[in-house]
Please model this.
Amino acid sequence: MHAPTRRTVLATGAVLALAGCLPADESAPPPPDPDLVLRRRVAAEVRALVAAYAAATAAFPALAARLGPLAAEHDAHVAALDPRPPSTPPPSLPMPPTPATATATLDRLADLERSAARRRTSQSLRAGSDLARLLASVGACNAVHAALLGQDDG
Model:
């Protein structure tokens, strides 16, 4: 066997030095921020609630005065959770048909609000502190909406 020549040692050293200066492999993107993923998921859920309110108001226009302010609060929740407009339309969640009566529609909306309040509680436990406070506030609003929808205006 021959000992490496001076030229071989210098060439190998140059290659190793250049390899240390090259950027690392950036093919794998960093994992998404879990709070950002949760914010967007909750925003999509709240958009589904807004759609349920819109369907209820379309089916029963007499409910517009009662449901409009509640839907507006959900619009504000979406803006707080995900202030950027979606780059693609959010996937629409299948909504059951609007019930046949206004009373049944209000009951269904109250059920949706109660379910949302429960989800916000569990979601806030997985969130960072700032997002947890926002989710707790949204969940409290869901619970109040459920109570308001259960009240008889008559």
Notes: The chain has a mean pLDDT of 85. Helices lie at 6-21, 34-59, 64-81, 102-126, 129-150. Residues 12 and 18 are 10 Å apart (CA to CA).
